[in-house]
Amino acid sequence: MAVSISRRLLRSFYGPLYAFGRCDSPTITFRSFRPYYDFCGHLHGDNIFSPGSFGLFKGGSSVPANRWLSTSILTPESGEGAFPSHLLSLKPLAMAERSIGLYQDLVIPVTNFHNEDKGFMVLAGDVFDVPVRKDIVHRVVRWQLAKRQQGTHSTKTISEVSGTGRKPWRQKGTGRARHGTLRGPQFRGGATMHGPKPRSHAIKLNKKVRRLGLKIALTARAAEGKLLVFDDLEVPTHKTKNLVNYFKQMENTKKLLLVDGCPIGEKLKLATQNLHYVNVLPSIGLNVYSILLHDTLVMSRDAVNKIVERMHTPINR
Question: Where are the beta strands (DSSP E) in 198-312?
């Protein structure tokens, strides 16, 4: 009976190793344990749970014997020294991707141009964590591009073209086609028929859809890790090289958009005016199209607060 119970315990705890071989196989050993055939030799007696076997003994501690069943995280700084440090990866562990669109508040670190730690900031979930909808973004971008068209194109009709109103030749007898004026569209320098006239290209789009488009654009940048929050956008000098050095430190960044809550400082404006890949906007001018044009978005604390306040303001109907 003792033997059968012991084998059941072995199968439950050490099933793969137990099924690997029998007692006559002396090649299987355990770390800091007796050889496998030596352990199997105890099955005939009552000392199956003796302290010299596996540590699963009565009244004793099973931690030393079962230590090989546990797992531990090794780092190059760990003091165990048994694992070669050059085989350990210095990269951080991959974390599970966060679900987007759950309206959860986000905690993001705050820094500045000198990469100093300025604490953390909570981003409102109803602004920076909304469901991403490409159709809404498309509608907002189309509305923006249509509204910004000047619409000053103009052509001249037959009454606006300069020229005489005299009939070029008589109606019959010349063998030529009959014409009543030389200002017609078929003549060089004549009028343009059905040509463009000054008009507005703007299309109608509800305010709630425009507001939702901006939230989606901010959510996309935050989900990509391309949204940075600075304590402020103050620069020590107006020299362009300072911003160039900071831009070179950023990874996978081709165009940078700086958004400040207050009016843009003169030093920052002078430092960025010669960089075609760095643009500056006040928070009141932040829009979907500008966010999509730049792959990295940097906002100050004041800008974030003003954007959230703007998104929470009731829509006047």
Answer: 227-230, 256-260, 278-282, 296-300
Model pLDDT for residues 227-252, shown as the tens digit of each residue: 999 999 999 899 999 899 999 988 88
What is the C-alpha separation between 299 and 226, in angstroms, rounded? 11
Residues forming beta bridges with residue 296, ordered by sequence position: 256
CB 308 within 8 A of CB 128: no
With beta carbons less than 8 A apart as the criterion, state whether 306 and 263 touch: no
Residues 6+ apart with CB under 8 A from 89: none
Q: Residue type at 62?
A: S
pLDDT, tens digit, for every residue of 267-292? 999 999 999 999 999 999 999 999 99
Task: For the full predicted model, state whether its pTM sits above 0.70.
Answer: no
Question: Given pLDDT bands bounded at 50, 70 and 90, which one contains residue 101?
Answer: confident
| Sequence-distant contacts of 146-155: CB under 8 A, at least 24 apart | 146/201, 146/202, 146/203, 147/201, 147/202, 147/203, 149/201, 149/202, 151/198, 151/199, 151/200, 151/201, 152/198, 153/196, 153/197, 153/198, 154/195, 154/196, 154/197, 154/198, 155/192, 155/195, 155/196, 155/197
How large is the angle between the packed helices 207-224 and 134-147, nearest 10 degrees?
A: 120
